[in-house]
Amino acid sequence: MSKDNLQKFFEDRIRAVENSALSDDVKKLLIGKTAEVVRQMDELENAEKRELEDFRVKHFGKSGDITSLTRLIGSAAPEVRRTLGAIVNDIRSTFELAFSLVEKNVSEREEAKRIQAEKVDVTLSKNAFREGIGGLNPISVVKNDIVSIFAGMGFSVVDGPEIEYTKYNFELLNIPADHPARDPGDSFYINPEIMLRTQTSCVQARTMETTVPPIRVVCPGKVYRPDEDATHSPMFHQIEGLVVDEHVTLKDLKAVLEQFAKRFFSADTAVRFRPSFFPFTEPSVEVDLSCAMCHGAGCRLCKGTGWLELLGAGVVNPAVLDMCGIDSSKYSGFAFGIGLERAAMVKYGIPDMRLLFDNDVRILAQFK
Amino acid sequence: MLVPIKWLKDFVDIDVSPEELADKLVSCGFEVEDIINTVDDVKGVYTAKILSVEKHPSADRLIVCRVLADKEYTVVTNNTWLKCGDIVPFAADGAVLHGGKLITAGEVRGVKSDGMFTGGKDLNVTEGDIRGAGEDKVLVLPEDTPVGVDFVKAMELDDVVLDIGITANRTDANGILGIAREVAAVTGKKLKMPDDYMSVPCGNDIASDLEIINEAPDLCPRYLAAMIKDVVIEESPTYIKRRLKAAGLRPINNIVDITNYVLLEVGQPMHAFDLSTIKGGKIIVRRAGENEKIVALDGKTYTLNPDNLAICNAEEPMAIAGVMGGAGYSVFDNTTEVVFESARFKRDSVRRTSRSLGLSSDSSQRFSKGIDYYSQEWGLKKAVGMVVKHGWGKPVSGTIDCYPEPAAEKKISFTARDIKNILGISVPARFIVKTLNALEIPTEKQGKVMISTIPGFREDIVGVNDIAEEVIRMYGYDRFDRSSVMNGALIAGNVTKEQSVIASVKNFLVGAGAYEILTYSFISPKAFDMLEMPADDPMRKAVRLLNPLGEDYSVMRTTMAHSILKAVQTNAIRLNKDARLFEIAKVFRPETLPLTDKLPEEKQILAYAAYGDEDFYTLKAVFEALFAYLRIGAVFKPGAIKHMHPTRTAVIEVNGNEIGYLGEVSASVSGTYGIEKRVYLAEVDCDYLAANASRYSGFKPISKYPPVERDLALVTDEKIPAGEILAAVRAAADSELLTDAVIFDVFVGPQLKIAGKKSVAVRLTFRSTERTLVDSEINALIEKILLKLAETLGITLR
């Protein structure tokens, strides 16, 4: 209800009072009060909440003057009581309505004032996370990604010792005593029978020794070899995968690695096998993935070839199955190994493997 | 291995480009690491014959020559010694010399010159390629050089060399012949043997001059020898020298060059002895005696022992088997009778000897990779053939072959179905038979069964899986169709509880603003001194590597403290103003040292370090929250750790087990690590956390009644730790109505007016799940608590 409406409304009430059969005294009282309240209400326009409360008590409180008007009704002559009642209640409810409008205006105005007063500069910052928000090492990030992809394909995660018997690192993986890979130039030894594992494949052998197929595992972990340069670290990480079951073939290996490649990089990633050699797999393959950066067009990362050499794999050599106590006439399997440093370097474009071991927070802060 | 394509062409016709050939080799398992053009930048240089030489009209030190190349030219040069009829390299106008130098025609002192004559250096050829090329003057070519043709072509310098990586199983491919066999199979051509592979004449004349006694067949399974008489020692022809040089071998004389040539072509290391040095006419293959000495071809004296195999005459060692010959027994300028050795020595024996003597050679490197029984004969045939072809001597009839246990012929039978079971795709039997035969693995089909006879040079083929690989690498790895449902049982993927707890701990610490670092498992033994560990500290009992990369990486860590402090150091000295770091990794704690047959315990430790705007309590807050997150009830007690601040360190106990410590690193240790700021450090047994963490401990209903809080200001002895007061409060209340008790203020100071005391403000929260608590109940509980506190710890209300 607008202010003009309200004014007109009260003028109508006053006219109604003037035209009514009420006594002049009562008429005068009603008109006088009404005009007074209307005037005071006008003044409330710029009032504060506290003044509104005073006004409410003064007019609508127990002994407020509008409230007191209702008391006239009881003492009025019976023939005018009904008329008076109607007029007084009409006046009262109209005042209450008008007052609530004023109240609403005032509270809106005050709220607006408060909001203005509380304004913040959203471009300023207060560093609640003093140290930044922390972060996993890129090797952990890549490991988690890879593990979760293979977990989705039914692989479980298994661990094994880093200080290992040569038996698990070599013999059971078909690497005989006179094999060049057993040279001290290629492995760290503690004594002739105990060494730092050079590959997570040891965990394959341990798993096969203790598990009845079906086997479907991945084994992430640290491995050690005596090399150190931009693409080699004496300690690095691999994740090994092993599947042993009836009727497992090289084709299944390719299908699984294709799924992995598409999840790890992007849906258009292609997989290419190249023949290779590992003593514990036969046939063995080097696995190339189409370049994550140029998608096969050729770039600096893939040295123009469109392919990234990322993992080695193959059909588990039946001799290895037999040595680990699995009947190679019934079961077959495949295995693969991924270098996590290489995967991280490719995924994040890290130029030098040594940066992964630098531990400067300015580097670490780049990975989440 | 470096493989010149021209050399390959001795064995197989090649009609594809080097790039195509490289692609084919890669597709069948031979990685081509590089394609090298031997002469790639010399252009426009011709062989030219000097027709006339005249003095320069206005310069005494110059001459003007008319030369014939593709046509006639005039050349002004200062090589006044050149004469009519000489054939020289001529760089015409527009020619490019080695290094990119461009030649243009011009005028020299008023006479027009169409180009210039060049020396060996400008053409990227050396004395080894063409005699005279090493001298710093114009190169005069042999008289029979064709005139007017491109110099690079005329001298056959334009070769392409493939640098091929050979996998460890293909020992047969460590020679031109082996690669040629693959090239023939992969390009569908026939392998042709050159005519200089010859057997010695039939007979046994060799036996009258030579006896071979093999006393160590375990280290030398085969020793084959032939003899040449009427030997002429001379320089090898250019093609031999050039091929040796391209492989990085130095030409010496024809006989020595033959042994090196055979090494490159067949892959068989050979040795040539002067028969006159074989005292007693006996070659004895035996273990060297203790401290037996030999002066090798490198001029150095080596002291042998019974681990080393020696090739001896009746009196002394003449060669370190497979490694290097002795200086006094090889081929000399006056040698007339030569014995060629073509043997198989065990690869690990050669490798060990080479390593222990610190002596490596092309021969030892080749033997170390392993060699087959087939190469000895072929190596010898090539050597004999080269001698005969060049007329360098006469082979004596017969060979001596010490081969006590000849390798048995190996046959493998299989069906196309067997191959499919390995590969997952069907390869037609016809293709299988054709491919194996092309690879010189004779294979025939009898009904459904195929039978392959494995040749001596393919010792890597032992079973059907190897056959499958031969088939698929020729059939193509790109022929798998893309759809495949993995065969076998359905299994749900799984991580163990330990693995999942460790992942949560890492994520928690990341949330606490920490970065995960990565440090080596091996550390310097000095670390224990840097950490000020006492001499008898069990942490010093660390596993040592036999062959570390260096002293700084020589022991397997027993503590993470050193590694993480080094990471703090990295950040601090680079002026990163603060950092929170952590790592979860294994430490290695052996039961006894040295390790015998038991592996050391491998324990995962969580290490955490922080510096910058940190104090003891910011450190402790992280761990309190971590333990709460893992639902592990940990208590912190004042503790003493050698490398830590004596009064700012707590040990962490769970159910009476000490599982770690945290606190401030002692100033002296931080100083040792070069860190100026205070460093806060924790190490916690992560295996314990993983085993004892729980995600959930049963559902508890929540109270709908209001809590009541009461604050108590207590005066206590200054020495009583706050934790003990809280524990005492809880114990005293002994009521589940007391739901929380925290200390919100500790105050020590003169205002307290009682020396040795402190004021501790404790806030107690009471709440019932059944009703609204009334004052009288709470007062009674507080009364009880105060009474107990006074009794047990002498604590009073302030």
How would you describe this protein?
Chain A has two domains: 3-117; 138-364, BirA Bifunctional Protein, domain 2. Chain A contains twelve helices and ten strands. Chain A has helices at 3-19, 24-43, 49-60, 65-75, 78-117, 138-151, 166-169, 201-210, 250-264, 318-323, 340-348, 361-364, and strands at 156-157, 163-165, 189-191, 194-196, 215-224, 235-245, 271-278, 281-290, 307-316, 332-339. Chain A is rod-shaped. By secondary structure, chain B is of the alpha+beta class. Helices cover 26% and strands 28% of the residues of chain B. Chain B contains 21 helices and 38 strands. In chain B, the strands form ten sheets. In chain B, strands 26-29-30-34-33-32-31 form a seven-stranded mixed sheet, sandwiched between helices. Chain B has a five-stranded antiparallel sheet with strand order 5-4-3-6-9. The N and C termini of chain B lie far apart (88 Å). The model of chain B has no long low-confidence stretch (mean pLDDT 91). Classes of the chains: A alpha+beta (368), B alpha+beta (798). At the A-B interface, α6, β1, β2, β3 and β5 of A face α8, α11, α13, α14 and β26 of B.
CATH architecture of the largest domain in chain B: 3-Layer(bba) Sandwich
State the separation between the terminal residues of chain A, measured CA to CA: 59 Å
Number of helices of chain B: 21
Number of strands of chain A: 10
Mean model confidence by pLDDT of chain A: 87
Number of structural domains of chain A: 2
What structural class do helix, strand and pairing data of chain A support?
Answer: alpha+beta
Shape field of chain A: rod-shaped
Describe the protein's topology:
The complex is a heterodimer of chains A (368) and B (798).
Chain A: H1 3-19, H2 24-43, H3 49-60, H4 65-75, H5 78-117, H6 138-151, E1 156-157, E2 163-165, H7 166-169, E3 189-191, E4 194-196, H8 201-210, E5 215-224, E6 235-245, H9 250-264, E7 271-278, E8 281-290, E9 307-316, H10 318-323, E10 332-339, H11 340-348, H12 361-364
Parallel strand pairs in A: 1-5
Antiparallel strand pairs in A: 2-4, 3-4, 5-6, 6-10, 7-8, 8-9, 9-10
Chain B: E1 2-4, H1 5-8, H2 18-27, E2 31-37, E3 43-56, E4 59-68, E5 72-77, E6 87-96, E7 106-108, E8 111-113, E9 115-117, H3 151-154, E10 160-165, H4 176-187, H5 206-209, E11 211-214, E12 222-229, H6 238-246, H7 254-265, E13 270-274, E14 282-287, E15 292-295, E16 301-304, E17 309-312, E18 317-320, E19 324-325, E20 338-344, H8 347-357, H9 362-368, H10 375-390, E21 394-395, E22 400-402, E23 410-415, H11 416-423, H12 429-438, E24 443-446, E25 449-454, H13 464-475, H14 497-511, E26 515-516, E27 522-523, H15 527-530, E28 555-556, H16 561-573, E29 579-589, E30 601-611, H17 616-630, E31 634-638, E32 644-654, E33 657-665, H18 667-672, E34 679-685, H19 686-692, E35 708-717, H20 722-733, E36 738-747, E37 757-766, H21 775-793, E38 796-797
Parallel strand pairs in B: 11-14, 26-29
Antiparallel strand pairs in B: 1-10, 2-10, 3-4, 3-6, 4-5, 6-9, 7-8, 12-20, 12-21, 12-22, 13-20, 14-17, 15-16, 17-18, 18-19, 23-25, 24-25, 27-28, 29-30, 30-34, 31-32, 32-33, 33-34, 35-37, 35-38, 36-37
Helix pairs in contact in B: 6-7, 7-10, 8-9, 11-13, 12-13, 14-17, 14-19, 20-21
